[in-house]
Amino acid sequence: MKQQPVKLICIDVDNTLVDAVDEHGILLSSLAQKVKTNLWKHSNVETIAKDVDCVIFPGGSDICPTLWKQEGEWHGIEGDTEYAAERDVSDYLLMSYCLEKNIPTLAICRGMQMLSVVSGAKMINDIPAYFAFQGKDDGDTHRDPEKKVFAAHDVSIIDTDSLLYQSTYASVLKNVPSWHHQGVASVNDTKLTVTAETLTDGIRIIEAVERKDLTFCVGVQFHPEVAVRKIVDKEGDAANYMDLESASSLFRALTNAR
User: Fold this and answer.
1) Would the pLDDT of 120 be above 50?
2) Closest to 174 measured CA to CA, from 254, 253, 244
3) Fewer C-beta neighbours within 10 Å, C or N terminus of the chain?
């Protein structure tokens, strides 16, 4: 039997909010509270996504800390004011819809952070500062400080009963492409389960989470799609990153879960 095509949506919104952000581009707290309170039922998300089979939330700009369960402040780093409040609102509403409707979802980097934010997780606003506060050094593990290339590091899968492990059949993913300075500090008191991590200078950074009560809801902090692109396009540094089979496995698992 011929397999039916997958209806998949990959969100990257470029609308404009008026009088909604502060001087750093962060969504105003009063408006963020409305988003967190009203969720998808007071938006047009269902009209747009009701026939979608699965959703990918890709990487991108920082998430406004006003959307966190415990609101954070701007981290004060002049070089990191890459916020997109419009997309934050759209992604937050769509994520809340996907979770409630049990739509198969793969959340990558920023996407995993949004999954965690919507779920009420505790967040990290800047990983180097987070390490420094504890007298540690992150060693630029998660992002090239010059923002020119993807950092590469290993990820340990710590849950063999996870979709991540069942997709990759690996206890360690070698040289995942990484580009982030925000992160997830803790998923305590949420419905998320941590399934992968890195340890640097004794500090854990969460690398993957899942909602095990849903059909397929996986978040990864790294970028498997970057490795796929580099290998397929035969880019010169492709060998520096994870292998094609591991990188593409989650995408196959997502489409099979619809």
Assistant:
1) yes
2) 244
3) N
User: What token pair was written down for 47?
Assistant: 């009209």
39 vs 174: CA distance, rounded Å: 37
Residues with Cβ within 8 Å of 214's Cβ and at least 6 positions away in sequence, in order, are 99, 102, 105
> How much is the average pLDDT of 145-164?
97
Triad 83, 77, 70: Cα angle to 5°: 65
- Please state the pTM of the whole predicted model: 0.91
Alpha-helical runs (H) found in the chain: 29-38, 45-49, 85-101, 110-119, 127-133, 163-168, 224-232, 244-256
CA gap 32, 14 in Å, rounded:
18
Whether the per-residue pLDDT at 112 is higher than 60: the answer is yes
Question: How do residues 52-96 score in pLDDT, each as one tens digit?
Answer: 999 999 999 999 999 999 887 778 777 777 899 999 999 999 999
Q: Compute CA distances 211 → 115, 189, 227, whole Å.
A: 10, 13, 25
What is residue 173's DSSP assignment? E
Q: Is the dihedral of CA 69, 71, 76, 80 positive or negative?
A: positive
Alpha carbon separation from 156 to 137, 204, 219 (Å, rounded): 19, 11, 15
Q: Per the structure block, which two tokens stand in for 141?
A: 């593990």
Element (H, E) at 196: strand 193-200
Cα distance between residue 58 and residue 71, in whole Å: 23
**How many residues are listed for the chain in this entry?**
258
Question: Which residue in this structure is represented by tokens 């698992």?
Answer: 253
Q: What is the DSSP letter of 81?
A: -
